[in-house]
Design brief:
The complex is a heterodimer of chains A (381) and B (283). Chain A is an alpha+beta fold and 381 residues long. Chain A has two domains: 159 residues, D-Maltodextrin-Binding Protein, domain 2; 162 residues, Periplasmic binding protein-like II (D-Maltodextrin-Binding Protein, domain 2, 3-Layer(aba) Sandwich). Chain A is built from 16 helices and ten strands. The radius of gyration of chain A is 24 Å and the shape is globular. The termini of chain A are far apart. Chain B has 283 residues and is mainly α. Chain B folds into two domains: 49 residues; 225 residues, MetI-like fold (Orthogonal Bundle), CATH 1.10.3720.10. Chain B has a two-stranded antiparallel ribbon. In chain B, a hairpin with a 2-residue loop joins strand 1 and strand 2. The mean pLDDT of chain B is 89. The chains are: A alpha+beta (381), B mainly alpha (283). At the A-B interface, helix 16 of A face helix 3 and helix 12 of B.
Chain lengths: 381, 283
């Protein structure tokens, strides 16, 4: 008798658990149906936080359209999302990706399949404020719209560097005159070191040859003098040719005054200065030719389930109000032209508020990093 | 007779799944990968050639990386071996609370994930780290670079390998009969003589097993060289990953892997020789 009671008891518990789980399973798609727009966003945690805490609540308040964000941390799985959109297109289905924010190269990858909506001022009014010659637009084959950006700039310690270099060549001269006081991070561990490398390559070869979609390995032969140049700098680099791993390691060396000058990301430099992690003597400046920059872009699938809401969100994101939030949160560049930004924002970023050089495409980037490892770092003294 | 047949069939059935796993998931893909490294496209035709290996050895950074990997591995094995042997001897022949305490303490690194250990070593050894601070107090200003180079990798590998090496060596030492050592003492052999003439030869199998497994383990380790190593030269595992993911040259990466197969194969041969010697000894 008692045993049977216990069985009844456990069965009740089991049913309850199953019921709760079923509700949970059922509840997830149910919420998805309510959501007005599903946004696929990629980036670091600061991007996630900006969307979660600032942009999405404000958008929902202003437009009363519900949003749902799928976040791809550090862009993980970015290619799979493109594949998923392509698969939906091929099978004639709609996709739940209403807006995709990713690296321009991934957008370019789907361009030939015709999965993206062409964005013009007709479907997104604020697109008229965007410079369509930005690398993000060009690299994404015209289908990606930038909404944030950052560029690598030169950081120097004004206590020790009285006349900062204004051109890339002046940086090179400064390094030779001040041995051990400059470094850049290993290009494969960080973008700021990669920018230093790319601008060296562009010194001997046109940037436009490498930033487009075409790839021809033979063209990399033009980089040889640049690699020799970087190799010749090695004895004058901090600690006899020590290239730290990652952007943060360089900022720390600047902070401890182990080095006086280095390329850094504009957004990281500004936020480190804001937090007091860098001494006030550190100044950020862009040089000529400028360091590379560029960031992610937004594309909207042609067969998105809620395409109108996606376009509406993009238009909202390009208003100067939303762009001011982006610029302040990320200490980066706006997606729209600087001239459409409020004056106080422009003043804050005066030193770096200009354009940047385009990044080489993904294949050339891979070659450049490999050749740097083979011919600069790994070649011995 | 019938029962032995049935036993044989049961045994075979038990052995088959891992055997097929080994064939289809390890040996076949590995063989395919090695074949792939030899297949080169030349004017539209696929031919077999050693071109990739030639390219590999013409690239200074790769050549240096191979040499560096072997040197770092050998150094780590040597240092680990000396320290672990000393520890194992102490634990085997010493009685008392210090020995019991040490016996419990030395296995701790076995339970600490390599990622955490590597980061701990970096903060410990870096330019303004713990060691540098300690040395500063005793008046040494110019601390040598202990991390982001070969020294850092060797120190961390040694730290992580000692427990395993000590455990295997200790197991070997415990198999040596006390009577043998006592009789060596009785005929007047000193500690060193006893060690060289009795302990070392009797423990040779455990020694070979430890050294070869350590060698293979350190040769293929990734986390430690990735986190504690420098920009250049890098260990082969790190270089392979870079060529595979960052430089979009998986062919070079697989060729490097094939080369590391060969190097590990040498250590594997020593292991097999050691084990079969033990089995022959047991018969």
């Amino acid at each position: 008798m008692r045993k049977r009671l216990r069985i009844v008891h456990w069965t009740t518990v089991l049913i309850a658990v199953v019921f709760v789980f079923a509700l949970g399973w059922y509840g997830i798609p149910a919420r998805g149906q309510m959501a007005g727009v599903t946004l696929y966003i990629s980036g670091d945690t600061n991007i996630q936080e900006m969307f979660d805490k600032d942009l999405l609540p404000l958008f929902e308040r202003e437009t009363s359209v519900k949003t749902k964000m799928v976040f791809l941390e550090h862009g993980q799985g970015a290619e799979a999302i493109v594949a998923k959109i392509i698969a939906a297109k091929r099978t004639g289905q709609q996709t739940d990706v209403d807006l995709y924010e990713t690296q321009p190269t991934f957008i370019a990858a789907g361009a030939s399949e015709g999965i993206w909506t062409k964005i013009t001022k007709d479907n997104v009014a604020n697109a008229s404020k965007v410079d369509y010659n930005r690398p993000e637009v060009l690299v994404s084959n015209g289908f990606g719209i930038p909404y944030r950006g950052s560029s690598v700039v030169l950081a120097y310690n004004s206590k020790y560097v009285k006349t900062p270099p204004r051109t890339y060549d002046e940086i090179l001269a400064w390094i030779k005159q001040n041995p051990g006081k400059f470094t850049y991070c290993d290009p494969q561990t960080c973008g700021s070191g990669a920018a230093f490398l790319y601008v060296a390559l562009y010194k001997y070869a046109k940037a436009e040859d490498f930033s487009g979609l075409t790839y021809d390995q033979a063209k990399t032969a033009a980089w040889e003098p640049a690699l020799q140049l970087l190799r010749s700098l090695k004895p004058n680099i901090y600690n006899n040719g020590f290239y730290p791993n990652g952007n943060v390691a360089v900022l720390q060396l600047l902070g401890r005054e182990n080095i006086y000058m280095a390329p850094v990301w504009s957004d990281q430099g500004v936020s480190y200065l804001d937090q007091g992690l860098l001494p006030k003597d550190i100044k950020l400046v862009q040089v000529t030719p400028p360091f590379t920059g560029g960031d992610s872009a937004i594309a909207i699938p042609v067969h998105a389930e809620h395409q109108a809401s996606g376009l509406m969100f993009l238009n909202w994101l390009l208003t100067s109000k939303a762009q001011t939030i982006v610029v302040n949160k990320l200490a980066g560049y706006p997606g729209i032209d600087w001239k459409y930004m409020p004056k106080d924002v422009r003043d804050k970023f005066a030193g770096i508020a200009q354009n940047f050089s385009p990044l080489p495409n993904a294949k050339y980037q891979a070659d450049a990093k490999r050749l740097w490892q083979e011919k600069v770092a790994g070649s011995g003294q | 007779m019938r029962s032995t047949t049935r036993e044989g069939v049961t045994g075979l059935a038990l052995v088959l799944p891992p055997f097929f796993l080994l064939i289809f998931f390890i040996l076949v893909p590995a063989a395919q990968a090695v074949l792939e490294t030899l297949r080169v496209e030349r004017s539209g035709q696929i031919v077999y050639s050693l071109a990739r290996y030639v390219e590999m050895f013409h690239t200074i950074s790769l050549r240096r990386s191979v040499g560096f990997t072997v040197m770092v591995t050998l150094a780590s094995v040597a240092v680990t071996f000396v320290l672990a042997y000393a520890l194992a001897l102490y634990l085997r022949f010493s009685r008392g609370w210090v020995s019991t305490l040490l016996g419990a303490l030395f296995i701790i690194p076995l339970f600490i994930p390599t990622v955490i250990a590597s980061f701990a070593m970096v903060t410990f050894l870096e330019h303004h780290g713990y060691i540098a601070t300690l040395l500063h107090y005793v008046g040494v200003e110019d601390t040598p670079s202990l991390v982001f180079n070969a020294t850092g990798i060797v120190l961390t590998e040694v730290w992580a390998s000692i427990p395993f090496a000590t455990l295997v060596l200790l197991a070997g030492l415990q198999g040596i009969d006390d009577a043998l050592i006592d009789s060596a003492r009785d005929v007047g052999a000193g500690a060193l003589r006893t060690f060289l003439a009795v302990v070392l030869p009797l423990n040779a199998v455990a020694t070979i097993i430890t050294m070869s497994l350590l060698f293979i383990g350190i040769l293929g380790s990734f986390t430690i060289p990735y986190l504690v190593g420098g920009n250049a030269p890098q260990m082969m595992s790190v270089v392979m990953t870079n060529y595979f993911t960052n430089y979009l040259r998986p062919d070079i990466s697989v060729s490097l892997a094939a080369l590391s197969f060969v190097i590990a194969g040498l250590a594997g041969a020593a292991y097999v020789a050691g084990v079969s010697r033990r089995e022959r000894g047991a018969v």
